[in-house]
Amino acid sequence: MKHFTYLQIAGLIIRVTSQNLPNLDRRSDWRYQNFVLKKTPKKFDFEFNLKVRDNYIDYNSKILFQTEREQPKSSKPDLSSGRREQELFQKDGEGAGKQREQKEQYLGKDIDWRISRHKERFLIEGGTSGNFQVFFDNKFQRIDIFIVNQDNQWKLAELFVGFLQIFLIYYLANKGDGLVVHSAAIKDRQKKDKGYLFAGISQAGKTTTSRIWHKHAKDAQILNDDRIIIRKEKGKFYLYSTPWHGDFSDYLKDPIKRAEIGKLFFICHSKKNKAEKVLPREFFNLFFQSLFLPFWDKEGLKKEFNFIMDLILSVPCYKFGFKNDKKIINYIRRIKE
Amino acid sequence: MDSKKILKKTDKVVTRKIEDEVILLPLSKSSKDLNYIYTLNQTAADFWDRINGKKSIDKIKEELLSIYEVDDKTLTKQMNDLAKDLKSIEAIK
Question: Please, how many CA atoms are within 13 Å of residue B14, restricted to the half-sphere of its CB?
Answer without folding.
Answer: 19
